Known about the structure:
It comes from Antarcticibacterium flavum. By secondary structure, the protein is of the alpha+beta class.
Amino acid sequence: MISITKRFRTALIFQFLIYGLCAFGQVATAQSSIHQSIQARTDVIFDSLVEIRRDLHEYPEVSENEEMTSKKIEDYLLSLGLEVKSNIGGYGVVGILKGTKEGKRVAWRADMDAMSTDLPDVVDFKSKIEGVRHICGHDVHTTIGLGIANVLSSLKENLEGTVYFVFQPAEEMNKGARGMVADGLFELINPDEIYGLHMSPYPVGTIATKSANVYAHFTIMEIEYKASNDQDSLIDYTKEIMRSAQTYGPNAKFWNNENLFSPEFGVTSPNTIYKDYVALMSNFAIEESKGRVILRVLVDASNKEKLNEYSALIKNKIETSRYSEELISVKFNFENGMPVMETPMNDPELTDATMKSIYDIYGKQSIIPLYGVPPLQFSDDFARFQKFIPGVYYFLGGSNPDKGIVAMPHTPNFAVDEEAIKFGVNYFSSIIVERLKK
């Protein structure tokens, strides 16, 4: 992930004003009794969940070192009477909740690692581990996962099927999901569907998502040539064709981060300009050695197909130019470089069904549909689980301007309105219950 500019944070606050924060109620029209029970149970345990979150925040652990966090999760799940598997792919933990009858199998994933950072903590319950902080919200993710386990355990007699709670390590290193799979996760559990969330700067009380990918595909593109006497011209030519092949010119609204949340053409607008694009997101790096010259640049695309199309286009232009004899390769994955970063790919049917459930149970104000993909370097290895199982990845709102809280991960002032814990437990407990019914 990357740092977000002050202008971007201003744009987010503008978006909050558009959606409003004035009454994100949880009153459904014609709720079933089980969803009322979910809300009642969440209210009962909410204060204890806040305590859990603050404890996790005060004692953060970086990727692949989540030993203490893992033990806390294991003990909590055991206290609920769940079957627990631990030390999966490192410090991964799985809790298994079986309903009264056989039925569908649904998995919920929560990541739990913190990050190394020298940025000072901004909350009263500050990290007590020097140089480590939950600046991405995984302490909240873990807490919500435990809260869902608590709520659904209290309703066990009314559940058919099985719920798996997957607590994943090392997300920040993009290694934890892969490690759990390699360590036999899907030999221990066999879910039909999988779901997960990430904290986001949307208003507290809201969920945002879309079908297909929710983050841009990005990678470093590398073009390698044989050295030549006309090298400066070759480099200038390559830069020019790559820049001109971008979707938007240098003066387009696309490049102004304040437009990301524009109601007319931002990511939440059906008329968004943030779809079907390719964009260069860095300056060109030039390396000359051993009779070769290599150009590298970071490329963002709204989907993987656009990324591949762009690569093919650039290769074709060079191969049909006067520099064709000098070309060695055009590629993404190169030694010691950055592979194409995976983005969660949401199953369209499950996305529509689960968002409709929240709409029906908790009301229209709870939903923020997304139509575009921001051109920013975010990823989540939840995508690794989705290679095996269909599922949906959601953004849970955590911001509250009235409290001065903007929940943009990896920014210096990142914080979360803890009411988001209550919304997360309610919304996603209800989603799981509804999916078990199907």
